[in-house]
Amino acid sequence: MREGASGLHRTSPTPSPNFLNDSMSMSLRLSSFPPALWRLQPPPPPPLPPPVVSDTAAAAAAIPLSSARSRTRRFRCLLPSSLTTQNRAPKLPPLLSSPGDVPSPEQDAEDEEGEEEGEEDCASSARDALSRLLHLEFGLSSDDASRVASNAPDYIRSLIDGVRELDELSLWDSSWKSTPLLVSSASAVAGFQEKVVFLAKQRGDRGKVAFLESIGLPLSSALSVARSVSSNSLPSLLRKVKVLKEILFSSSDVEVLLGKNARRMMMHLSIPVDEDVQLTLSFFEKIEARRGGLDMLGNKDASFLYLVESFPHLLSLPVESHVKPLVQFFESNGIPRGQVRNIILLFPPIIFNKVDDISKKVLVFQKILADSHDIGRMLLKYPWMLSTSIQVNYEAILLFFHMEKVPEPSSHRAIRYLPHIMGCSTSKLKLMVESLGELSVRNKKMGKVIAKSPQLLLRKPEEFFQVVSLLENLGFDRETVGKIVLRCPEIFAASIEKTLNKKLGFLKSMGISNDHLPRVIKKYPEVLVSDVDRTLIPRINYLMEIGLTKREIAFMVRRFSPLLGYSIEEVFIPKLEFLVKTMEKPLKEIVDYPRYFSYSLEKKIKPRYWVLKGRKVECSLKDMLSKNDEEFAAEFLDIERMPVPPAPSHL
Q: For residue 561, which of 533, 537, 526, 531 has the smallest C-alpha distance?
């Protein structure tokens, strides 16, 4: 029987053919392999005497750190059985043993439980050894060292497997007994822990791989990142990670729209990009391929790990002279500290730029800014605006709008409101501009449209004309459709299935027939982009609560559809209260004349009511309000212009 790391008794096992092949290939790859494996395939004698290297050290260096992840077999505890679980007789194959020797199911369960206990004892001993090494030699505090060792299970497993391989190959020599870090009453445990420490030191990463795994990186990624931060000491690396997370990822808010904005930025990018944007696109692709996709950008813990994994040199940036001034610059431009991470995650290479360089890039947009906070709002929406390729295209877009005779205030407002336009090629913009031109929307009219709804410029022409066809099928001609574009361009940037058809269905459910739909939409096209649940339904419900029937409301909407856009608190309540309590008129009056809600209460409704009341004149709401001032004065006062009497003092 072989006792592993106990050192009491050990026989060398005969390697399997597959193992021989693996070992032979390893000997070809590694020039410093131990003599024990060189014998499997003797190399030609070297021209110069090799340096004196411990066999154990060479073998330890040859064992890949990722071996724990590549093997599927479970590691067997290397501590002697007397220090873990009691020895148990091995189970014999049923056909080679008597019935009395076949282990029972209960004994099988006990054996499996004993193996698990032994493995946990082995892992616990290895964690203790690594914790001592991190604390006593690599400079971490006792608590930090314990925390790292407890949260690096794959690294611990790789160390245990490394000790196991060297045990099986009998490649240990006395060099591993040179560390005074471990003290134990059981010499076998101390021997195992010394071997673990020896292997950990031979890895050469000085604890960085274990630390990086402990913060959440997979072992393979931790290996790669550790090579990029090899110049940092372990305590320095730990402090830097803490500070970066505190500065950049201190907010507990989950940015659910971060992934959506990343997709939108990619969707509307149609120009050749520079290296920084290309690196960002690769970063997005890696995240999208993982569970949760780009939506995980909003998770602060996951996103920090993604950032470190793809841009490991982030951990080499000086905090005081680089990271903090960068954060302060963004804050000075109106970006809250908790949202600085949004810019970094949507455009990671920007964190490697100096503040002076970023300031120069921001100045490029000075001529389109309306106030000092515009640049912060634009950066949060579209941080790629700081890339070289986007800035070059921005100048081309300004020139394009100038050639199309779009007023500068309109084009500037469009870019401020939707900076994603800067990632769109002018050839693509021209297609949409020509499509609008077919509806007689040009020059100043074009300026009004893109200033109000710049997202329309990012539509595909075929999507735009699908909305045009929808309106034409409802009964509108091209000239009227062009007027609707000027009045409410958002309609033509909306989804037919998700938005427009939903609103048309709502109007029909109210009792608006197909014959009346054109009148309703023409008078209030905004109804097609109004929120059904938060805007339309609450207004309908309020009118029903005051005593109107659904049929009466449908009649009112057919006659005056802007009714659906008025505020309940600011329009409906005060005007109905004046109608019923002061004017003492029935609700039927607003059914017959719903336009009543369109007039100003203070400037028109009240003054005319007090004039008529003073003359003891009774008339309908339509007669009172539909006439202009001259017509009203001529009919009710027999004078050319209506005087405005003061309201009663009790009001």
A: 526
> Which positions ≥6 away from 347 have C-beta within 8 Å?
276, 277, 280, 383, 384, 386, 387
What's the pLDDT score for residue 175? Answer: 58
Alpha carbon distance 225, 205 (integer Å)? 11
Total residue length of the chain: 651
Residue labelled with tokens 């990012």: 458
Q: What is the rounded distance in angstroms from the CA atom of residue 87 to the CA atom of residue 497?
A: 71
CA distances from 165 to 12, 63, 82, 431, 477 (A): 11, 8, 21, 67, 82
Range of weakest confidence among 83-92, 203-212, 259-268, 360-369: 83-92
Judge whether residue 514 has pLDDT over 60. yes
CB 329 within 8 A of CB 337: no
Buried residues in 544-572 as b, exposed as e (16+ CB within 10 A): eeeebeeebbbbbbbbbbbbbeeeeeebb
Boundary residue ending a domain (539, 556, 591): 591
Q: Binning pLDDT at 50, 70 and 90, where does residue 412 land?
A: very high
Same domain for 184 and 70, yes or no, is yes
Count CB-CB contacts under 10 A for residue 210. Answer: 31
Task: Indicate whether 188 and 102 sit together in one domain.
Answer: yes
In this structure, is residue 159 part of a structural domain?
Answer: yes
d(CA 89, CA 79): 17
Supply the DSSP symbol for 64. -
pLDDT at 73 over 50: no
Shared domain for 174 and 70, answered yes or no, is yes
According to the model, what pLDDT value does residue 38 have?
Answer: 30
Task: Determine the Cα angle at 180 with ends 179 and 182, to 5°.
Answer: 100
What is residue 108's predicted lDDT score, i.e. its pLDDT?
57
Mean pLDDT calculated for residue range 91-120: 53
- Determine phi and psi for 245, rounding to 5 degrees: -65, -35
606-614 helix and 629-636 helix, angle to the nearest 10 degrees: 10
> How high is the pLDDT of residue 549?
95
Q: How far apart are CA 626 and CA 594, in angstroms?
A: 12
> Does residue 284 belong to any structural domain of this protein?
no
Compute the distance between CA of residue 512 and CA of residue 536 in angstroms, rounded to an integer.
14
Judged by average pLDDT, the poorest of 23-32, 424-433, 610-619 is 23-32
Q: What is the pLDDT of residue 338?
A: 83
- pLDDT at res. 344: 93
Contact 118, 189 (CB under 8 A): no
Rounded to whole angstroms, the Cα distance separating 148 from 131 reads: 7
Q: Do 644 and 566 share a structural domain?
A: no
Residues 647 and 562 in one domain: no
Helix segments in 98-254, DSSP class H: 105-136, 142-150, 153-168, 187-203, 208-214, 219-228, 234-248
Give pLDDT, residue 476: 95
Predicted confidence at residue 477, as pLDDT, reads 94
Is residue 422 within 8 A of residue 415, CB to CB? The reply is: yes
Domain extent, residue 508, equals 494-591
Overall pTM > 0.70: yes
- Round to whole Å and give the CA distance between 605 and 614: 14
Element (H, E) at 471: helix 461-474
